[in-house]
């Protein structure tokens, strides 16, 4: 007799799963700055309708986003009336300024009124710069002492850009991915065992990836495990005709799935 026919290519039936890893913890609310005010005798009584110049600062932006708190700035001394010809008005005393004046943040001040808003300080800000918080100007020392959040990692006051994550604050240079050691900034991040990972490194180390489209298989996605690989259900297709093979018999050639017709 003739040779026996070659055995048919093996046929596999995939295992279909619904991927349901532990859900990611919900994003916590943005931390609330701790209120501060000086001793009652240090500030004259004010109406409830008027903002106190030395109260709590504005809340930071949401978790995981870079938030600029305490805008640092410099001032300029002017000796001539602006080119517009309009007499400047002091933002401190609200009176017209007839001589030299200071400009900062688009506003004008009498030189003697351009001072730290902390009534216990009153340091002139022209030569040392200032930090703006809640519409008021402070010397850097007072801002650091009474308004600035402190970095969870290094413990130092944060003046300028601040990253808020999990109800804690960090300098951008301290908020790093533990894998690549690059700043995460205001981009998306993940936590494993209490450690921060950037999106790319977390996907590479912890996420199940689809072998077809190479995108992550997200929580709640239907997926197929076959040929020692993982696929989105909609990505598990015949390598020749692209017919979907979810729940169907299929053949394998070269580690790729094929429908029964093209597996021969």
Describe the fold and architecture.
The chain is mainly beta and 264 residues long. The protein has a domain of 51 residues: Cysteine Rich Protein (Ribbon). 6% of the residues lie in helices and 24% in strands. The protein is built from two helices and 17 strands. Strands 1-16-17 form a three-stranded antiparallel sheet, with no helix packed on it. Strands 2-14-15 form a three-stranded antiparallel sheet, with no helix packed on it. The chain has a three-stranded antiparallel sheet with strand order 3-10-11, with no helix packed on it. A hairpin with a 2-residue loop joins strand 6 and strand 7.
Q: From the helix content, strand content and strand pairing, which structural class follows? A: mainly beta
Number of strands: 17
Rg, please? 32 Å
Under the CATH scheme, which class of the domain at 208-258?
Mainly Beta
CATH topology category name of the domain at 208-258:
Cysteine Rich Protein
Separate helix tally: 2
Organism: Plakobranchus ocellatus
Pfam families: LIM (PF00412)
InterPro entries: PDZ-LIM_domain, Znf_LIM
GO molecular function: actin binding; metal ion binding; muscle alpha-actinin binding
